Amino acid sequence: MPGDTPLAPSSGLDPEIAARLSRDAQGLVVAVVQRHDSGEVLMVGWMDDEALHRTLTTGRTTFWSRSRRAYWVKGETSGHRQWVKEVRLDCDGDSILVKVDQEGPACHTGDRTCFDADLLDAVVGVPTPQGVPR
Amino acid sequence: MPGDTPLAPSSGLDPEIAARLSRDAQGLVVAVVQRHDSGEVLMVGWMDDEALHRTLTTGRTTFWSRSRRAYWVKGETSGHRQWVKEVRLDCDGDSILVKVDQEGPACHTGDRTCFDADLLDAVVGVPTPQGVPR
Fold this sequence. Notes:
The structure is a homodimer.
Chain A: H1 15-18, E1 29-35, E2 41-47, H2 49-58, E3 62-65, E4 70-73, E5 82-89, E6 95-102, E7 118-120
Parallel strand pairs in A: 1-6
Antiparallel strand pairs in A: 1-2, 3-4, 5-6
């Protein structure tokens, strides 16, 4: 809900942006990272106020690791850096879209994206006229 | 973490897929919805095992509403239906990418996507040679 206490009360995030965030119980919002040129969805990460502040002000993506409970800058160790092109907040304030210039593969497995490896069997939807049962 | 109890223990989800999910404390994974043709990221929703099962088997997207604590089928009331083209699980099992054929605007505000309205001020990253401080 908006107004929940963020993980980092000392965050440098612009208060006008902070007021529009709808954080989960851990003080986090979802961050979807997309290649600005190809449109590929590269990965999903998590940001608290401070991670978003750093993403908005450094030109690189910073996330909050829920498992390690620490900030991480994408590419800091791998060199597969993400250069920020555009950052957007969604209509209910609980997710962020970050368009980036990606260096190298985005996934730690070496794949171009974190969604390359596991295509699930799915029934493909066939559009039907509105109101007509399928 | 993998193996957490899902919200819907009676889910019809394929046990082999269920075993690969890494759910949050509420038994949910993030679902990113992308237009299959334009590549636009349309919205972010949440799925438990049963919502994913329905998404995989009905040709339409089903989500779990955290606020209403109920399943919802996108477009059920608005008519702005999402027809499933492809569903992918990410490398650590905590997010899903659903590529869809979107009818009408994806956002309840009438915007094409839920990310159209709120562009944040961001420093644009300028790639630098690896190892050279910016």
